[in-house]
Specification:
The chain is mostly helical. It has helices at residues 3-25, 29-39, 42-45, 65-77, 85-90, 94-106. The relative contact order is 0.14. The mean pLDDT is 83.
Length: 113
């Protein structure tokens, strides 16, 4: 083999190894769906549930899943009052509410100053 052909072969092997490593590190489809769903909350609760410093609405990142489930279900059923959240919560299925609670619960909490 010529040196040029060896370099091309080596580059191919390195590329395949890189692609395999990337595929192993890639998030699952379920994780991507949950993150996409959680992105719908970003306008009010911050990117990935991390509210900005001084925000009036709470950040959701790191809140316990049972608390989030309870609050979202209360908004959805109308037993908890709110301005926008009752209407938004009605648009989520129970499975989506569970996904949201799980997503935000696993997200690291950031303290607000």
């Amino acid at each position: 083999m010529t040196p040029a052909l060896l370099r091309v072969g080596l580059a191919g092997v390195l590329l395949m190894a890189s692609l395999c490593a990337s595929a192993q590190d890639a998030p699952s489809a379920q994780s991507l769906r949950a993150r996409s769903l959680a992105a719908t909350c970003a306008a009010c609760h911050g990117t990935d549930g991390r509210a900005a410093v001084g925000a009036t609405l709470p950040g959701l990142a790191g809140m316990p899943a049972p608390v989030l489930l309870e609050q979202l279900k209360a908004f959805k059923s109308g037993t908890r009052a709110g301005t926008v959240m009752p209407q938004l919560a009605k648009g989520y299925s129970d499975a989506q509410i569970e996904q949201l609670a799980a997503w935000f619960a696993q997200a690291p909490r950031v303290s607000r100053q």
